[in-house]
Amino acid sequence: MSDLFASAAAGSGTALGAQAYVLHGFALAQAPTLLQDIAQIAAQAPFRQMRTPGGRLIRVAMTNCGECGWVSDRRGYRYATIDPDSGRPWPAMPAAFLQLATAAAAKAGFPDYRPQACLINRYRAGVGMGLHQDRDEDDAVAPIVSVSLGLPAVFLWGGRTRQERPRAFPLTHGDVVVWGGVDRMRFHGVRPLASGCDPATGDCRLNLTFRKVR
To answer: Is the pTM of this model over 0.90?
Structure first.
């Protein structure tokens, strides 16, 4: 393991900003249950690669659960209560998901958090996510709660403009990142994933991203 990934001790926390934190190992105990729940969600709403409004294929495979799900196609980025692939509502958010998200948000200083959507991303080797802001939610203060499972990744934490150079933070299995309040609209991303094999997820990284939409 590189020095970058060896630098954060499990059970500790790293401040990214005034209202943004990495909670190292916060989801480790719940990880087996979370992975079982992801498999059940994907059986109902399979992972798929969506397209940007401009027609570009998004390399990260995605699915959703909760009251609504994030979707992207020629019509734009948006939240929808119906899975466009199946014509059915998205799978309900599992109790373990909701409990973890609310506990992590409270730990980071955001009590009474109740997400309405969980976007589930699947990264394979060579796949990352460019710097972006989460702008499709009506609530631009409530935190984003992001849970890492499986292969390690490097989280890029930027500023309030795309031009500001991001800092790099290692994320490993069970880490949770929470950002909201004054840090809610920071640019962020993920470096392309290195190849590997994780005992829990095989050749991929799974990421749960909880959002309060309205």
So the answer is: yes
